[in-house]
Amino acid sequence: EEPEGRRGAWGVGPDSQRVRHAAAPPAKVVDPTGAGDVFDAAFLDAWMDGATLDAALASGALAGAAAVGQVGVTTEPPRRVRSEP
């Protein structure tokens, strides 16, 4: 059976009735431990910083893909680069 994360991420924003999708980036899965938590953290970080739903989903998907490439829970999740105003 295919792991859930390989199908990407879906979400519905507060102002939309349309389901949005972000594809999962290619990743070599070593250990999925904590990947969902890393996805959630990256998604929320982007969303709370004002990103669109599409951008927040993509941020979460990228972080989750990076997290599965190492053994065990990550202590240094990927960080989003913010542009200065």
The counted number of beta strands is: 2
Strand arrangement within the widest β-sheet reads 1-2
Q: How large, in whole angstroms, is the Cα Rg?
A: 13 Å
Largest sheet geometry? 2 strands, antiparallel
Total DSSP helices = 2
Distance between the termini: 45 Å
Q: Which structural class do the helices and strands define?
A: mainly alpha
In the predicted model, the low-confidence regions spanning at least 5 consecutive residues are none
Helical percent range?
A: 25-40%
What string gives the helices and strands in order? EEHH
Question: What is the arithmetic mean of pLDDT?
Answer: 81
Instruction: Note the overall shape.
Output: globular
β content, as a range? 5-15%
Give a written overview of the molecule:
By secondary structure, this protein is mostly helical. It contains two helices and two strands; from the N terminus they run ββαα. It has helices at residues 35-48, 53-67; strands spanning 9-11, 20-22. It has a two-stranded antiparallel sheet. Strand 1 (9-11) and strand 2 form a beta hairpin. Helix 1 runs antiparallel to helix 2 (53-67). The protein is globular. It starts with 8 loop residues before the first strand and ends in an 18-residue tail after the last helix. The mean pLDDT is 81.
